[in-house]
Amino acid sequence: YGFYPGFDSDNSSGDFSEANHKVPEILDRDPHQSNRTGKQNGDTEIQENGIKRHRTSLPAPMFSRSDFSVWSILKKCIGLELSKITMPIVFNEPLSFLQRITEYMEHIYLINKACSHADPLERMQAVAAFAVSAVASQWERTGKPFNPLLGETYELTREDLGFRFISEQVSHHPPISAFYSEGLNKDFIFHGSIYPKLKFWGKSIEAEPRGTITLELLKHNEAYTWTNPTCCVHNVIIGKLWLEQYGTVEIVNHSTGDKCVLHFKPCGLFGKELHRVEGHIQDKYRKKLCVIYGKWTECLWCTDPTTYETYKKNEKRGGEQKKKLVSEDDIKSENDEADDMPEIQDTVQFIPGSKLLWRINCRPPNSSQMYNFTSFAVSLNELEKGMEAILAPTDCRLRPDIRNMENGNMDVASKEKERLEEKQRAARKERAKDEVEWHTRWFHQGTNPYTGTSDWLYSGGYFDRNFSDCPDIY
């Protein structure tokens, strides 16, 4: 799980359905904290300046997962494809994967920065920071987003942030989510598709990303493309769940030939590299223009290559005392079944003269009671007054299982989830019987104009709001 969907499938036999599991007791909640604006869900407070103030809490806090073991589900499924396993709803978070993708936009100010810079190197720095910030919301988010139903959509317009966003589940097997976003000032276009490949390694589940991410800066006539790092959730059998990102991300500026190479480092034996990101920006002649370093959970800095190399040489010579990363109690033997996440106590080692590119937003104080959501994530499933009349009938906000889970009605949410999955199975069988092919509504398969690879492209027209031919999926 983590950022990526999986497990739930319309091919599931039902043997491992959440309906077979008892829902645990709800955590204690403070009724005064259910919504800090004092408004009920759907009644958004308007500030004096006319800007909508989005909610700061979910209607109900999350349920405890302590009574459940992922292994109790997975051990029955050895030899099965992960996409055919249905997990109990208690392991979910009340967001669809389409809404989770929208969290790319939380740090949209970095796109605005890129648009405003005249120097192509500074633009690439801002784009690199944006690519890293896109995975930052995953930190401590071990809940599984709901798998989107085929044809499900999600739209988000944020006038205060200057963008609008639309996504659609364009394929169920394999699961593919396509998205398109544009600046309200017509300054950028951001689009792509995501279809992760899941692997179960016994103690961990790895989601290898597939699909190209494209950012176009219209004012500069530039396009950048990249692919996300691999996401891995550890301790799915026993111990505290934790996740890491690793792999190499290459961001290419197709106009200048500049490239940013970012290495998301795996944790390592004693956790020395946990969350670390290091890389560089090079021009089309492969000359290093700057070095980037930091943590995807914390911040990102850049400095010139000479300064960086000098600092690293001095560090090797013992010029600076290295910090102690883990205590003796944290060092686990190779036979330790728990394989707990090391208790890392250091922060990013600042190199004098570096420039700050990005820093993670502080999470709301009640985040731990809200699936470790950021403030941006808390607002994503908000159903404002009058919105239902203009939304597409396929929008995530109208999904009854997610809505009931958000409201704390776990038994109803579980039954609704099972009903929707059964409805999807029945619709698929009916199409197969009549030999009817599924047609996507807002996206189509094509070729990415910059990479030449297969991609899902926005067909346009969503915001004309002609929803007469949308499928009945709920």
UniProtKB/TrEMBL annotation:
Keywords attached to this entry: Coiled coil, Lipid transport, Lipid-binding, Transport
As recorded in UniProt, coiled-coil segments are 403-437
Residues of the region (Disordered) are: 25-52
Q: Which PROSITE patterns match?
A: OSBP
Where composition is biased (Polar residues), the residues are 34-44
The family database entries (Pfam families) matched by this protein are listed as: Oxysterol_BP
Q: Tell me the superkingdom of the source.
A: Eukaryota
GO biological process, alphabetically ordered: lipid transport
Give GO cellular component annotations, separated by semicolons.
Answer: cytosol; perinuclear endoplasmic reticulum; plasma membrane
Has keyword Transport?
Answer: yes
What GO molecular function terms would the record report? cholesterol binding
Give the protein family: Belongs to the OSBP family.
Protein name, as recorded: Oxysterol-binding protein
* Taxonomic placement: Eukaryota, Metazoa, Chordata, Craniata, Vertebrata
Chain's gene name: Osbpl2
